[in-house]
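Complex record, two chains
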Amino acid sequence: MPSRPFWFLLTWGCVAWYAVVVVVVGWRGFLEIRRMIQDLEASGPLEPDSNSSEPTAL
Amino acid sequence: MTSALGLLDWSIIAIYLAGTMATGLAMRRYVGKVEHFLVAGREMDVSLGIASLAATEFGIVTAMYTAELGYKNGFAGAIPGILLTIAIAAVGWTGFVIKPLRASGALTIPELLERRFGSRVRLLAGLVMVLGGLLNMGIFLRVGGEFLTIVTGIPMRYLELTMTGLLLMVLVYTVLGGMLSVLVTDYLQFLVLGGGVVLVTILVAADAGWEKVVAVVAAERGDGAFNPFTSPGMGPGYVLWQALSMLAVVLTWQTYIQRVLSAKDPQTAQRMYTRTSIFFVGRYLIPAYWGMAALAMLGARGESLSPIHAMPAYLTRLLPAGLLGLVVAAMLAAEMSTDSSYMLSWGSILYNDVIRPLKKKRPFSERGGLLVNRVIILGIGLFLLAYGLWYEIPGRAWDYLAITSNIYLSSISVLLVACCYWEGANKTGAIAAIVGGAVSPIAFLLSGLARHVEVAGLASFGLAAAGMLAGSWAGRRRKAG
């Protein structure tokens, strides 16, 4: 076991997490962007003036 | 000194920049309303949220200050990241504050606070958030420019030019596409950045190894290299302050909250938090390891460098042609995603909570609102350029960032918790908390002190909480009387 095993495992665990997440989020994020653009296109052109946000739940 | 970059490196950087700019600009046509510009029409799903939050919260400035923490404090320098991970995982798991915040439908935190505490609190909260946020990001461009000049070998006299070029690229797509452009470019930047971080860490490990790094930091920094309670410039008070600050960051830091508010629903926001949590340990620990490797490998040469410059100097020595271009592209990705998101975040508060409430009688049209938002972001860009050129950081870069963020983190987190969970809170308490929370960080910054930053930080949280309790009590008494 390398010296300072806690820090060793934490450091390389993070590197492994980054490597995996880049691939997973890369694929899922692509699909989500495509869906987001489809939704935005479906929502149509510029809407009339409105400064209010959604109603409060509080 | 000549440029360390070859034709292949410059080609990689040019392709990356052209791709980012084209993607960012392509999103412009979907921006029809202020809500699209500020919160991407609330269309963001979990993976895009993870990519965007991770890319935003990892800039060149992050790599620089965390590497500096590693260089100075060894592994103990990663303690803010560990605390942040615990905080974001706990908040994501429980939905504490972020669930009612997202469910409220507010565009910003001050907008929610107005519903409970009135318009004056909204304005005051907006002002301290913008003040703390802009002072905080004031050093981003300079530190980013310093990294790029050191790594690429561009002479330091071109630092200002490098900063300006970087800023202009970010401004173009942020001003035109707002949060929609930021989300999509963040996604691309996350891929480049994530790949670059893994690659650099493997190269650093191959060069410096593990045992040598551990031995050198143990010899140079002693037990404090592994224990934040005994590390130089840290200690129990520092760790407590960091724990409070990290919880407050998760609850109120505008770049986090803007993504909570952009999420499709409260559950998406919670999942984004829990699934991003591990990222935050790595965000501190991985560059800290690079900083420790710089300490181990540069030896006497490293001692002549400022601690914050040791890591980029080491990477220049380590990386061969071709890979250097990839790493510079990854760091440019990191910087651009951070700068764009931060400008948009503080700009959204300035518009939504300071300027727009002043125009209640004659509100902006959607087109007018978009124009004002774009002008605000341009203004923030100019401020960054001027402040970055002028300001010299007195101590550790992380301490500067943490204490400037405390100008509002302490008070707004207290206000948010009270707003969501304490019926006894009122306007007087809210105002007292905002003023109390801002006093000690501002006094610390104005005094130019570089020591005992944790005292100012803890005082900020103490005064904010005391202000809320005492002010609410006084407010109730006045009302009853």
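Note: The helical segments of chain A are 5-42.
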